[in-house]
Amino acid sequence: MRTYEQARTSVAAAPGRANHSRRTPEPVLHVLQRTAGNRAVGGYLQHSTKRAADSVLQVDEEPESGGADGDFESTAGHGLASPTSVSGGGFGGLDGFAALARPAVSAAAAIQSGGSAPNGMRLGLTTAPSGYKAPQFEFGTVAAMGATAADPPTFTCTPTWKEHMDEGTNVCWYLAAGKHKSITPSGGKDVFIKLSAAMSSLDEQAEREHADDIRQACAISLKEAETVLKDHVVGKTFPSAATATDAQKHVLDAITANLVHAGLGNDQTTWAATYDRLFMKTGLRDARGWHTFGVTGPPAVTATEIVHTVAAGSTSLGATSSADLIVY
Ligand SMILES: [Zn+2]
Question: Ligand 1 mean position to 230 CA, how many Å?
Answer without folding.
Answer: 34
